[in-house]
Amino acid sequence: MDINLNKISPALSDPASPVNKSRLGTSFPSGKFMMSSRKMIPKLDDVKSNGWLEAMISSSPPRKPLPKRLVKDFNVEVAPEDDSAQRAWMRKYPSAITSFEHIAAQAKDKKIAVFLDYDGTLSPIVDDPDRAIMSDAMRAAVKDVAKYFPTAIISGRSRDKVYELVGLTELYYAGSHGMDIMTPVNVNGSPQGPDSVKSTDQQGEEVNLFQPAKEFIPVIEEVYNSLVELTKGIKGTKVENHKFCTSVHYRNVDKKDWEIVGQIVHDHLKQYPRLRLTHGRRVLEVRPVIEWNKGKAVEFLLESLGLSNGDDFLPIFIGDDKTDEDAFKVLREREQGFGILVSSVPKESKAFYSLRDPSEVKKFLKNLVKWRKMEDSTSM
Ligand SMILES: O=P(O)(O)OC[C@H]1O[C@H](O[C@H]2O[C@H](CO)[C@@H](O)[C@H](O)[C@H]2O)[C@H](O)[C@@H](O)[C@@H]1O
């Protein structure tokens, strides 16, 4: 079915729109993920009226304080000039470093499992997603943690990509916001659910693959290709295919064009009622409408690791983004373990503790290893 995109996108029919400087003759096959043309455009809404634009604007704190005028104009989260609000926030989400003794007391005689987000947690946020490189010192700290505690990376990126960036074989990896989980077959109690299949990892070892959104691979590919095409006239956009989800970055797009990016994605997704959109840090994430997220991935991994029964284990999830909130919420609701939010500015969260940035994450991970070594030596 050929769709004239100019008809379904107000932004695209605007001759001033940068996208119209490119050719948009994309053809989209119809399928079970798409709406019939009769059902298309259920109501005329746009990124401004439904709050998307506001969410796009406030989706990531600036890396350096902005002048007051910008704070007013863009409603961004920044540390207030007088730091009383910052102090109040720190009382609510105390530093996991200064509260380490308290954390250690909770962890005593418990099996700790460590869950780590990648971007903004293990690597600093940078303009180019391909350059979000983890430092060697951070890699060493994560490697050390994995010697003592089961450790998993749960990222919005594809599993292959995050494995390539982290490069440690001793971890568990969950990509695409937990929609692609690899666990070894010999892990205690590893479930072989209907969606788990046997596969082999990069080292040729047998593994279990859990991919609850497998049927969405072709449609994600299709949407990725069309979004690349639709946004190619907007300088600075970058679209990534994470196999089970796709990301549209606008960090490097001129602010005046953010609305157009949002509108294009918004309008395009109207044809795909089984896809939804979430906001990350200066990124729009297109995901399948399934009941699965980083929180569910934590629960799945805990079960796979044999850590879901009893109260002798303590899961810790460290992350910086909105999608990490699903994991913080799960831990809070289970009343087991806790989330640590990585943020240098006040943000509401379901986490219990905070760390300012990846360098504090590294320090916390090192403390955890030091503490466990001490515990082990005193119990000998
Ligand atoms: O769950 P995560 O591991 O935190 O992945 C979330 C997204 O991270 C990446 O984008 C973010 O980091 C980039 C590099 O610092 C930055 O340029 C971008 O603005 C951030 O949104 C990744 O590229 C996305 O695909 C992930 O979904």
From TrEMBL:
<dbReference type="InterPro" id="IPR006379">
    <property type="entry name" value="HAD-SF_hydro_IIB"/>
</dbReference>
<feature type="region of interest" description="Disordered">
    <location>
        <begin position="1"/>
        <end position="23"/>
    </location>
</feature>
<keyword id="KW-0346">Stress response</keyword>
<dbReference type="GO" id="GO:0005992">
    <property type="term" value="P:trehalose biosynthetic process"/>
</dbReference>
<dbReference type="GO" id="GO:0004805">
    <property type="term" value="F:trehalose-phosphatase activity"/>
</dbReference>
<dbReference type="InterPro" id="IPR036412">
    <property type="entry name" value="HAD-like_sf"/>
</dbReference>
<keyword id="KW-0378">Hydrolase</keyword>
<protein>
    <recommendedName>
        <fullName>Trehalose 6-phosphate phosphatase</fullName>
        <ecNumber>3.1.3.12</ecNumber>
    </recommendedName>
</protein>
<dbReference type="InterPro" id="IPR044651">
    <property type="entry name" value="OTSB-like"/>
</dbReference>
<dbReference type="Pfam" id="PF02358">
    <property type="entry name" value="Trehalose_PPase"/>
</dbReference>
<comment type="function">
    <text>Removes the phosphate from trehalose 6-phosphate to produce free trehalose. Trehalose accumulation in plant may improve abiotic stress tolerance.</text>
</comment>
<dbReference type="InterPro" id="IPR023214">
    <property type="entry name" value="HAD_sf"/>
</dbReference>
<comment type="pathway">
    <text>Glycan biosynthesis; trehalose biosynthesis.</text>
</comment>
<dbReference type="InterPro" id="IPR003337">
    <property type="entry name" value="Trehalose_PPase"/>
</dbReference>
<comment type="similarity">
    <text>Belongs to the trehalose phosphatase family.</text>
</comment>
